[in-house]
Amino acid sequence: RARKGPSAVSLSGGVDSPAVASYAAPAHMEMHGGSLLALSYVYPEHPSVDESAYIELVADRLGLPLHTREPMARPTDDLAEWVRLFDSPFPVVSVAESADFYGWTTSLGRNVLVTGEWAEYVTEMSPHLLAHLLLSGRLREAAGYARRQRRLGRPIGTVTRRLSRSLLSDRALASLRRIAGRSGNKRPPWIVNAPPPAPSGTRPRRRWLEDQLAFFQGSGVLLEAHNVTAALCRIDVRRPFADIDVWEAFLGLKAEVKHGDPARKGLLRKLLRGRVPDEILDRRDKTVFDADLFSKIDYEELERWLISPKHRLAWIDYELVADSLRGRSLDLLEFMWMKDLCAAHAFLEEW
Questions:
Q1: In sequence order, what are the residues at sequence separation of 6 or more whose Cβ sits closer than 8 angstroms to the Cβ of residue 85?
Q2: Nearest to residue 227, comparing CAs of 242, 244, 214?
Q3: How far apart are CA 285 and CA 276, in angstroms?
Q4: How many CB atoms lie within 10 A of CB 235?
Q5: Lowest-confidence pick of 31-40, 85-94, 104-113
Q6: How far is residue 214 from each of residues 162, 217, 218, measured CA to CA in Å?
Q7: By 3-state DSSP, what share of the chain in percent is helix, strand and coil, each rounded to 5?
Q8: At residue 279, does pLDDT exceed 80?
Q9: Which of 333, 345, 347 is nearest to 302 (CA)?
Q10: 120, 200 in Cβ contact below 8 A?
């Protein structure tokens, strides 16, 4: 279902895309008589981001022709044009960077791209697991899970704090944060007088269950943006981890089976043993892309939309925004919020 013709795989050094590649490569050879191409961005200027060694290892073991290059686009490139095409602002996703990757794929003669995206939602939604086991009366399973967390080196304080966040009501958690002098506010300082996020209202007993379906909550704008971008680039982007049978299989597992190994994606790593190189499965570090994102902050483009905007949004202190931009020292949180704010202003400029 995921492959409709000669395909490429977006390959990283994590677990998810090598998992997809390990199944897709032999099937692709059988169905199409040729090799599945592996494509990957590399970051030679940012060693903390670059996963070249792991990517080359996977491609070599699976016999995949590997194509690599550095990314060309920045998150705010062509913002007005993308907003016009979507007829809405769009959050989080960097459409320009996605389009850059899709265009590269088609230039290599492949119009089907398979990815390991969204695996976390299928396999890894476990913050309320310990509380779920306790509240459902599975005390032995809860004790075993807590012991395994301790063996992984998780401090007992971390385990108990996570448990308390799962068991306490929203009101109780807010009270504890006030007592500890923590607001829980993860907004930048130029968002002022905005109402706090509404409490979820989810009872502790249902938090685990709702987490398992977190992918299906919220706005569909992000998915639509992905689909429009792929259509514009004349490419079919397939995400096998989002296949309905895969979802149903993982949702049907008991919690203590799905997350019996408290390491990240423990069950997935176990299932892939022998298919994906051990060097990938035994990784305990996780690559973060902060250094690359910082290098792609286009201050001139941010200033274009935010210094003297045609429209002004309530709860935004534009003088503080201007001060932050002139200082050329945004942190990553501020940049992500500003990027989304720029998209909102690009949309408002249409009116």
A1: 228, 232
A2: 242
A3: 17
A4: 20
A5: 85-94
A6: 18, 5, 8
A7: 55, 5, 40
A8: yes
A9: 345
A10: no
